[in-house]
Amino acid sequence: MYQYTVIVGNVGKAPELRYLADGTAVTSFSVAVNKRWKAADGEQREKTTWFRVSAWRKLAEVCNEHVFKGMRVLVVGEVDASAYANDEGKPCASLELKARDVRFLSFQDDGKQREGHRPPVDGLDDIPF
Fold first, then answer.
1. How confident is the model at residue 118, as a pLDDT?
2. How far apart are CA 11 and CA 13, in angstroms?
3. Strands 5-11 and 72-85
4. Which residue has the higher pLDDT, 114 or 95?
5. Which of 11, 41, 62, 77 suits a disulfide with 99, CB 3.0-4.6 Å?
């Protein structure tokens, strides 16, 4: 059995592609997931949770080519949480999401980010339906 987590957020850092000794591609990038709500006192609140995302093999190469800072993405994967002490000795936690699927919810075209726009794919524009 598998447990999957789905997140939707904005990429906080440009992807970094590396290859393992056996040639396996791995791309890493961070995603900020924002939660907004109205508190009992009526005040608007917001909390941001950061995920480190790792994509492997072919998905790593696709993410490295198409993911950019600020882009909105949906990521499905398995979460690995770990606790550690920061440089000041304070307890911290890290959330690593090993991506199984990444969906691009915004795209960059000529330097401009456009929500919900998918760039044309060769051959698909000619399909009559």
1. 42
2. 6
3. antiparallel
4. 95
5. 77
Q: Which residues have C-beta within 8 Å of that of residue 124, sequence separation ≥ 6?
A: none
Residue 35 tokens read as 């939660």
- Distance between CA atoms of residues 107 and 118, nearest Å: 6
Q: In residues, how long is the chain?
A: 129
C-alpha 120: how far from chain center: 22
Position 32, amino acid = A
pLDDT in tens, 19-69: 999 999 999 999 999 999 898 999 999 999 999 999 999 999 999 999 999
- Residue 111 has what pLDDT? 52
Fold of 1-26+45-80: OB fold (Dihydrolipoamide Acetyltransferase, E2P) (2.40.50)
Q: Does the structure show a pLDDT above 50 at 2?
A: yes
* Closest listed residue to residue 27, CA positions, set 71, 4, 57: 57
